[in-house]
Amino acid sequence: MTNEWWRSAVIYQVYPRSFADASGDGVGDLAGIASRLEHVRSLGADVVWLSPFMTSPQKDAGYDVSDYRDVDPLFGTLGDFDALVARAHELGLRVIVDLVPNHSSDQHPWFQEALAADPGSAARDRYIFREGHGDRPPNNWQSVFGGPAWTRVADGQWYLHLFDASQPDFDWSNDEVRQDFRDTLRFWLDRGADGFRVDVAHGLVKADGLPDYTPPENADSMGGAEPVPYWGQDGVHDVYRDWHAVLAEYEGDRVLCAEAWMPTVEEIAKWVRPDEMHQAFNFAYLTSDWNAAELRGIIDDSLAAFGRVGAPSTWVLSNHDVIRHATRLALGDESPQGHGIGPGSKGIPDTAFALRRGRAATALMLALPGSAYLYQGEELGLPEAVDIPDDARQDPTWFRTGGERYGRDGCRVPLPWEADAPAYGFSTTGRTWLPQPESWGSYARDAQAGVAGSTLELYRTLLRLRRERALGTGSLEWLDSPAGTLAFRNGDVTVMANLADAPVPLPEGEILAASAEVTGRELPADTAVWLAARA
Ligand code: NOJ
To answer: Which of 15, 8, 34, 7 is nearest to 415 (CA)?
Structure first.
């Protein structure tokens, strides 16, 4: 096993719209990120992953790109990007850029050209245009955001969009598309990017003939156990073999990380075979309930499946598409990925109880060997923002489902930095593109820094110990423990998490870190501890 940095890195996701706003327009920007990078460094993360900041009409918060090789003026300039990379590297942080290859914006010059061109023209071949069946679209596919995945153009043809109508899917059998993305990779690599998080990495290639597909009832975006004709087709892997070769031309260990929402780790592991990508998000782990047996099974499967292909396992609990884990793990009702929660949802948990669980889950995750992903604001213990007024919502999911699904705005609210500043220090003017809940002053970074027991200090302690004790490159050995708990050893640390609802006896050993107060030799419910293991 080699020791490239990404095998054990802690990667901190920055969502540029909501991290820090230097311009004061209410939307975060690259200069804002650069000014707050020390926070990420002092937290103890190794890498920042920047969600998209390329030129975009922002119909899907930047995941609708109209120029892959420039910065949207909302976020700054290419000069700001260069300055951010320079600052990050100076601080010893690496930078991963988000790349969106499945679809472009409908404002991309190629799509505009396609609309102006005739059916059957070369310009249309870069996207997926088809004839329909009379007034019906070419097949029955539904958009991940709700509604049909096809939109009709003036001359009667339809184009495919697995997401919003403003996000037409590329045709990846087209050589021009393939070449253009190679150029885009080189563009950001030349500017110092350390790698890419690849959006919808399971979607680029569609099954021949575009056959109908009906997902099982209540399925999330992954569909069911049956193969889905637009996810995980064999041909996608050729694209990443090609990209692997492009990255290998560059110095340093540059990485590709797959966002491949496939239902099992065995399937996800296909993206990280030796000549493909380097990492893939572990969505089986992210979607697990707070349940000891289920989590143990996923951890075992992950270490085995990724291990078999020589890749590190990754771990993740939150990102900009899911309900924040400091709420989600205590939710009472079913909330499929991307559906979100809002004022009308049932089973919204008590905030303190849910945070307790969220902290325990983090303490468990950060002790696991491999690479871990953090999402901005989880280190502050932020809950999902539930009470966003309808007229402030921005997620296309909300609009495409006529308000039936709340979507993802609740995990994207701008960060609170200073309890007493306008917009809690997010922007100097007090403007924010989504409203911040009134209670968020208590989560502000300055209200937690240096405060024993705060969530921020818990994350810092865990990340420091993880580094000092090399847990990321360690290995896991399960220990016997009571039902409803998990206990394992990684190097010289013993970890125990109590996912049951009653206290259990605590193993021997000095407590190095605890997700909640532990008195005596009992581990309370919804708590995880790290103990010094005996040699
Ligand atoms: C996955 C991204 O994480 C999500 O935010 C986006 O809406 C879709 N892909 C479409 O690009």
So the answer is: 15
